[in-house]
Amino acid sequence: MTERVYLTPDGKEDLERELNELLTVRRPALAQKLKEAVAEGDLKENADYHDAKEQQAFLEGRIQYIENILRSAEIIVNSGSSDIVHVGSLVTIVEDGNDEEETYSIVGAAEANPREGKISNESPIGGALLGRKKGDKVRVSTPNGEIIFKIKKIK
Fold this sequence. Notes:
- By secondary structure, the chain is α/β, with parallel strands linked by helices.
- It folds into 2 domains: 5-75, Helix Hairpins (Orthogonal Bundle); 90-154, Chitinase A, domain 3 (Roll).
- The chain has helices at residues 9-39, 47-72, 124-129, and strands spanning 5-7, 73-75, 90-95, 101-107, 118-120, 137-142, 145-154.
- The strands form 2 sheets. It has a 5-stranded mixed β-sheet. Strands 1-2 form a two-stranded parallel sheet.
- A hairpin with a 2-residue loop joins strand 6 and strand 7.
- Helix 1 (9-39) runs antiparallel to helix 2 (47-72).
- The two termini are 31 Å apart.
- The mean pLDDT is 90.
């Protein structure tokens, strides 16, 4: 069974931009680097050659990963206010005993970036928020222990 991959339109655009960069800039530059390393002769002890081959393997793996995501992704569009948290929702929560609000966008794992306020639907907090309503208290088990959040707003 294939795992469902979710992307927002922005996430799709970011991946398409990265893929284009990898295919049109990085891959040709790496091919040139390999060509130059091969021209140096003895490949057994050629550090530049081995480094370029390692970079090439990583690059090709990343290209395949992005192509697979883009091929199978379900694009999630946030249609504004909603009563229930789903992938694509913008959720404002407050930790029990704290007044500071935190707002997160619930996204698929492929574009999660907690520093940017994008948490995966598969993360402990993201998964616990799915299907919940404004005003709900949500209990989340995290690596640092259990936390209780109250949902303040859903967009």
